[in-house]
Amino acid sequence: MSRFPRALVFGLIGSFGIAYAVFAKAALHAFPFSGDEYSYLLQAQIFARGLLHTAALAHPELLRVDHVVMDSLVRSKYPPGTSALLALGVRAGMPWIVTPVEGALTLALVWKATQSTLGERPAVVAVLLLGLSPLFFFQSASFYSHTPAMMWLAVSFVALAQWTLDRRSLWLVLVGAALGSAFVTRPLDALLFGAALLSFRSLRVVLIAIAGVLPFVALTLAYQNAQFGSPFADGYHLYAATFPALDGVPAVGGQLSLRYAVDGAELWNHLDVCRAFLLEWMVPGTAILALLGWSRLRVDAKAAPMLRFCLTVIVAFSVVLLLTTVEKDDGARARYLSPTLIPIVWLAGTGWGVAGDFLREKVGRRAPAVVGALLGVVAILEIGAFFDSRVPKQWVREGLATAVAKAGVAAGVVIVRAEHPTRYARNGPFFDQPVLYVSSPPSVSVNEVAAAFPSRPIFLATEPHGDRWEQLSWQVERLR
């Protein structure tokens, strides 16, 4: 008889899914805080109407919004995978529920992969460590692409685990299809996870997986051709070329370069990301448990193939981090390491057994339960600390529309004056709201904006500054 009944396991996973959904709706207000999240949701709204893009208004240079390509057409710069799934939620009127469901499915997949290769107890520990990870918790309540990407990577992970047990080629086909789905969501994550297949030292594994990926690569090329004018033109390059940052420097976020591996400031950023990932964005001690798990599994011949794969994934993402710029932005900078949580908790599931044996021997029979509970409490406190620091920023980000409505603006053009006005000019993909937000830089005069929209009243909204609640209200005034 299983030590952990299936009802208990699925109840645990379901509870995490409910917690993510409650956090998404009640704490984060189902609001796409970052420009990335808004871009994904905007494209989902377009997809939900059966379209690839929409027509832009006249003077799109006055209506810039982060991470959205806006010339004669409006569309997200990102691959379509995340938005395609969000579109299901848009059609249902609940786009915010999609990512919590993806998070719960990811937990179920990680449980299955760990249970089939390592056993019941390590599988439950892996679920707890991943489910309570502040990074995974937060992202499973947001609109970021990291959770759907992790879901697809978890499908490939569980298929690989099953293949190591029975060597059936069908599992490798599923690995390829899952990696392909991840490719249309976050291409680099899929490529790195796929490259780790080389650790199996089998040409057959690689070729069958590639065969499963190819249809999704073809789909991506077709999408790029329809969306950006060429199979080999992606939204990142079109966005950077068309809409440089307001200070005139083209956006380069996410660009890979060897110089980042030797640049002093970037090296410091990389170290800080690793520190935050290990100490703030995971359940405390998860990395140590993973090391303990490695120490035990390295002498287990049955676990050897998956162990090599897990270590290769972790190394691959760590190396690429060194080649990536990781300047501060709206999200958790450690999010680019999110896929490594899957192999880390797989290792840590076994590591908890090693640590538990030590605690029982040196401290007492109940010590593992007490320590485990304390680690869970600390993880929850870390989530709370993140939310506490996020609330003032969320109030400002959401507060523009609230302040405009409070000022009695029923229709018109609102000029946004802020440090980063393109974070706020959120008019949706169809420009069908009576209030239009303009993100023009200060170099564009009010008269120029008025000339562009001659039939509408003009208002000015000024970004709040300060760290006290009473300083977080936007100032709105009528100019014409």
Keywords, please?
globular
Protein model, in words:
It is a single chain. With about 475 residues, the chain is mainly alpha-helical. The chain folds into 2 domains: about 375 residues, no CATH class; about 90 residues, no CATH class. It contains 17 helices and 7 strands. A 4-stranded mixed sheet has the order 5-4-6-7, with helices on both faces. A 3-stranded antiparallel sheet has the order 1-3-2. Helix 5 crosses helix 15. The radius of gyration is 24 Å and the shape is globular.
Give the secondary structure arrangement, pairings included:
Elements: H1 6-27, H2 35-48, E1 54-55, E2 68-70, E3 73-76, H3 81-92, H4 98-117, H5 120-131, H6 134-139, H7 146-166, H8 169-183, H9 187-195, H10 203-228, H11 235-242, H12 264-279, H13 286-297, H14 304-322, H15 341-362, H16 367-406, E4 412-417, E5 435-438, H17 446-452, E6 458-462, E7 475-478
Parallel strand pairs: 4-5, 4-6
Antiparallel strand pairs: 1-3, 2-3, 6-7
Helix pairs in contact: 1-4, 2-3, 4-5, 4-7, 5-15, 7-8, 8-9, 8-10, 13-15, 14-15
* SS-derived structural category: mainly alpha
Q: Measured on Cα atoms, how large is the radius of gyration?
A: 24 Å
Order of neighbouring strands in the sheet with most strands: 5-4-6-7
Helical region count? 17
Order of helices and strands: HHEEEHHHHHHHHHHHHHHEEHEE
As an assembly, this protein is: single chain
Number of domains: 2
Helix content: 55-70%
Provide a short characterization of the protein structure:
The chain is mainly α and 480 residues long.
